[in-house]
Write a structure and sequence with these properties.
elongated, 139 residues, single chain
Length: 139
């Protein structure tokens, strides 16, 4: 179930305009083909490898949960309409990041950096700080 919390949004703000930026994926794209999902899946594989090698406890891997869901633009639009507190004046997609030979390529090392920079606090809190340096060896 998708919920959009409005909290203070129930105040009378007629005529106002709000810009909201969400990470969504293109309608029809399989979840297995969405870049963040690919990165999270790869990260999960490395955690399992670390458990098999005895670097982390398997129970820690089993209880590490990131309840993330990247909606399609169609799902996002439906959720906003279902909420009933907002209307959509305009909805745009920002082109996805692309990597070419001219720009910095998205390497395995770059993926490791992205995962670590975004999730370091969660990883440290769940597994302990010592895993951070070990984790980068797997990438």
């Amino acid at each position: 179930m998708i919920r959009i919390s409005v909290g203070e949004g129930k105040r009378d703000c007629r005529g106002g305009l709000m810009i909201i930026i969400f990470a969504v994926h293109t309608n029809g794209t399989l979840h297995s083909q969405v870049t963040p999902n690919i990165l999270h899946d790869r990260f999960g594989s490395y955690l399992i490898d670390m458990a098999r090698k005895g670097i982390v406890r398997e129970e820690k891997v089993d209880t590490f949960n990131l309840p993330l869901y990247y909606m399609s633009t169609q799902e996002m639009e439906a959720a906003i309409k279902r909420n009933g507190c907002f209307s959509i004046e305009r909805m745009e997609s920002v082109p996805p990041l692309t990597y070419s030979q001219k720009s910095a390529p998205l390497t395995v090392k770059a993926c490791a950096f992205i995962i670590r920079s975004v999730m370091e606090g969660l990883i440290k809190a769940h597994f302990g700080e010592e895993i951070l340096d070990q984790l980068s060896l797997f990438f």
